[in-house]
Amino acid sequence: METSGHGDWKRREGLGSALAQIGVVAVLLAAAVVWFVHRGQVRQEVDAHLRTARSAVLKGNPSDLAMAQQNLEALFALAPDARDARALAADLQTELWLTHHQPGADAKAREQLERAEALGSRSGERYGARVLQLVGAGQTAEAQKLLEELKAQGANSPRLTLAQARLLQKEGRLSEARQAFAHAAEGAWKDPRFSTAYGEALLDEGMFPQAVEAFSRATTVNPDHLLARVTSALAQLYAGRPPDGVTATLDEVRTRGKDLTPALQARVAVAQAEAALAKGAPDEALTHVDAALKAWPDEHYALFTRGRALAAKRAPEARQALEAAVAKRPTAPLLTLEGARLLQAQGDGEGALAMLDAYEKTFREVKAQTADGKAVPALDRDDRYWLSRGGVMEAAGRQDDALAAYDKALAARGVGLARAQYAKGSLLLARKDFEGARKLLTAVAPETGAGSMPEAYAALGELLFAQGEFAAGCQQHYFALVRARAQGAPTDQLATRANDIKKRLETSGQPAMAKAWLNEAGPLFQQP
């Protein structure tokens, strides 16, 4: 068999095959490099979109949330199964649903959460969104069970604390809720949504200065956080501050079209209504309230302000409006306690008492923790409620019931202790129990003039007049006018009080003291 040149053939075949194999390997390596480079680029793009989305969410305004959503949609086009991004989307849509009441956000929030859970996300956004959605849907038992399970697993995040706070608030455990809101805001201090939620909880309790402070923390992080700015304005108006200081804020926010979700539209309109009320224009206030309820029918502040405006008009519909506000947020003391006061001032003692009875029913089973860890009825520590109830009973002529309520307010030893001492002292004065009244009144109106409650000094002055101690009584009345002036009482009001005291002295056979009194008190109400 001819074998010449065979070795050359084998040599040529081996070389060609090797070159071909090298070429294949080179192609595969090139493809792998391209794939890895592409994968790295995709990962970089995904990370960039996620960082941008998180940064936008931290700003907290609706336009920021929309920008975050756009980045998440771009991210999902590259990586549909990015589980933590899905959880962030669930958190974002839950905010738009429960806080801003954006139409359609509820379905999107549920969809994104289901996907995050299916993908196995274990981020704080996933669990926080789940609990918040349960609370928002009224499934409090399920929310509590999930929180307990997560706590047993060691889970802990500001979002879960915020969810816990909302659950506690819904259950009427307000003291615990305040602590949880505060802890959540502290833990997520870079996110103004948390301080804003805390501020709203304080506003619901009628704690206006504390609420304004919480909103201030939110605007320190983001000076343009609209919900914090507007609700702070509302808190200031509820506290009785002049509307001029917040009008510019409301006018500016109204121009922010793309940011005005239903919640913001309603909140701005409520604040405008309160500004109109402060200027003595209840009909204008009602027009703004109608706009607020058109934007969001469940805005409890709008219903409350409607009741306030109708009460200012002395309209009988005020009771229905105030009861509607309480029905929307039964665990908000501001609505019930202030509502009862307004109805009482309008002469509707029956309506005021009905509101307080409903409040007692709401909180009857709620327990509060004492400093030593004991559980006591929350109503036993609710001095504001007992003060309100005592005032209603006193106005109805039920003095014994009023005294019992004031005693409960005193026993609570809360922040309203001085107010309770004054209330009971004033009632004892009316009953001519001078010894009992003097003991209580001097506790809040010391004879040195160091107290801060003008009405307590005025009551003590009346007590001393009744006992014939006119010089000492004039001294206490003088302290009353000084304190009232320091707290911003109008000069014409001070003048009326001073002249009333002068007449009292004259009719009591003290003309010389009446003249001396007016000489001493005159500078307090004279125009500079």
Q: Characterize the overall form.
A: elongated
Instruction: Characterize the biggest β-sheet.
Output: 2 strands, antiparallel
Cα-atom radius of gyration: 33 Å
Strand order of the largest sheet: 1-2
How many beta-strand elements? 2
Explain the layout of strands and helices:
Blueprint: H1 6-59, H2 62-78, H3 83-98, H4 105-118, H5 124-136, H6 140-152, H7 158-170, H8 174-187, H9 192-204, H10 208-221, H11 226-238, H12 244-254, H13 262-278, H14 282-295, H15 300-312, H16 318-328, H17 333-345, H18 349-363, E1 367-369, E2 375-377, H19 383-395, H20 399-412, H21 417-430, H22 434-444, H23 454-466, H24 470-486, H25 491-507, H26 511-525
Antiparallel strand pairs: 1-2
Organism: Corallococcus aberystwythensis
Protein name: Cellulose synthase
TPR repeats: 192-225
General description of the model:
The protein has 26 helices and 2 strands. It is mainly alpha-helical. Strands 1-2 form a two-stranded antiparallel ribbon. Helices cover 76% and strands 1% of the residues. Helix 6 packs antiparallel against helix 7 (158-170). It is elongated.
What is the structure about, briefly put?
With 528 residues, the protein is mostly helical. It has 26 helices and 2 strands.
Task: Record keyword descriptors for this entry.
528 residues; mainly alpha; two-stranded antiparallel sheet; 76% helix; disordered N terminus; TPR repeat; Cellulose synthase; TPR_rpt
